[in-house]
Amino acid sequence: MKQRCFWVTDSKLYQDYHDNEWGEPVFDDAILFEFLILETFQAGLSWITVLNKRENFRKAFDNFNYIKIANYSEDKYESLLQDVGIIRNKLKVKSAITNAGLFMDVQKEFGSFSKFIWSYVNDKPIVNKFEKREDVPATTALSDTISKDLKKRGFKFVGSTVMYAYMQAIGMINDHTTDCFKYPNKID
């Protein structure tokens, strides 16, 4: 049996997410946007709640197509609020639409969102050496900085805790605990 990080339950969905996505470096803007939306909807909830609704989010939000989302009409916004398959928080739904437009603004400014976000770590993941749950922080100075920068640009639901979880999800930070089979054994 594989030894996984402390937060992974016996849920196959959770295990697959941990084993195949979490902490893997993501440079594709479409996937970076998907994780940004999912992490903002997760704020205040458990990640498994979001994972369980991920396919519903894909359908409801046009496969996370930020160009379409940025141009959603009031009718589309209202229909999302009626969609029982997603998290129907008015502010979070509105933030997804707002953040889609701002995401494209960042792309225009930096060439891609990937270039922007990965510049915070000089394009190289930070590998932490955490042994147990208590060692893993909810926020860091880096997540504070990214959060402040995104908020200054107008992004919503991008507090430091959300940004730290986002950095973990997209592999900017590798927080697999040292006892996890995904922990990189060869660290410089």
UniProtKB/TrEMBL annotation:
> Secretion signal: which residues?
none
Which domain of life, per UniProt?
Bacteria
The record's section on InterPro entries has: Adenine_glyco, DNA-3mA_glycosylase, DNA_glycosylase, Tag
Pfam families xrefs: Adenine_glyco
Q: What is this protein called?
A: DNA-3-methyladenine glycosylase I
Originating organism: Polaribacter ponticola
